[in-house]
Amino acid sequence: MGDSSSSSVDPAMMEDDDREVEQEEVSKLVFEVTHEAKLRELLHKINSIEIKLCSDAKKEFIKLLKGDSGGQLLHQYVQMSSNFSELMSAWKLRQGKPGMSHILSLISAILSHPDGKYIPNDKERNATSRVLDKFAQSLIVEKLEDIYKNLNSKEGKCQNAALLLMASLVRRGSGLASEVAKNFNFKIQGFSKLAEYRQRQNDKKMKYSTRKAFVGFAMSFLEVGKPRLLRWILQQKEMYSGVLRGLGNDDEETAAYVLSTLQDRVLTEQSLVPPGLRSVLFGSVTLEQLVGISGMDNSVPVAKLAHNVLVMVCNDPCNGLMPDLKRQPNPLRGNPKRLLAVMKKLKATEVEYHRDLLLAIVRGRPSFGSSYLEEFPYNLEDYASPAWSDFSLFCILCKT
Length: 400
Description:
By secondary structure, this protein is an all-alpha fold. The chain is 66% helix and 1% strand. The chain is elongated and about 80 Å long.
């Protein structure tokens, strides 16, 4: 006979388990009821004609989304209002009027939430993701004209919010990114100026208020990393020129974000971006910016990052500067003139990264060493000069 105690279940344990399940269900129900009431309250205030009420409700909504239960709140909101009628009503109420930035920034926060992105085998999250993707698609189809108006607004908050919203659409995935690339008018008046800098009245340089958001929008296409999209979007030369020409004046975080994205997404074989297009991307002004950044203190991480990018751009023929006439079936002529101009701008006796880059270029193609020495930009006659190391550099180049 078997031990009856081993096959029996303790009724007390079953009762405890049932009680735990019941408590979980009650807690979930309380959460849903409480948050549904809060959501309705916030959405009502967001549709108020009073800007202060709208602003406060937007801030609280975003704060809740960023909280520990933000994902649950997002799922509940999508279930409550899958057509986002309250947000669209608020959009209509605010369009062309003060306070529109609050609506744009809230929608951006909703579309950007990580719990609203697709993840394999997560049914609840993916159900939410599909609803949000459909909403995002409707904005691309129906609301671009409104977004253009906000980009042309004289209110910096509106311009920033519009750029952040567009970036949030792109980052939802390659499909929506391609839709934005296909439908967005990159030639609208004043768009490229959003990447520029202003001057204060006292002539101190300050970052233009929309630059960081502009950079985020431009780089969001590259973050998605779809090869065909990269090849097409990089032809929007004014947008990327605006990003790269201002790198030398950006804070370290922004510069590092741009350079790391270029390094990981564009300067790779998988990107399928042709050498000619890469060469255009890294024009003379951009290269000068990178030389300046790499000349910063070696302890600054972005200096090393700029150096690594320069080494890749200047030495790999696939990036459009270094020639490779032996390559078959299509020899690469590169751009020797631009590459030599970079070499002449390097402070090779003062900056370690500059010296390393100079020697890397010469090792890659010794003829550049000869061309460089013809216009050697250092003094070799003043032997008493502290810059006597110039001569050692000269010798290294000759030996190379």
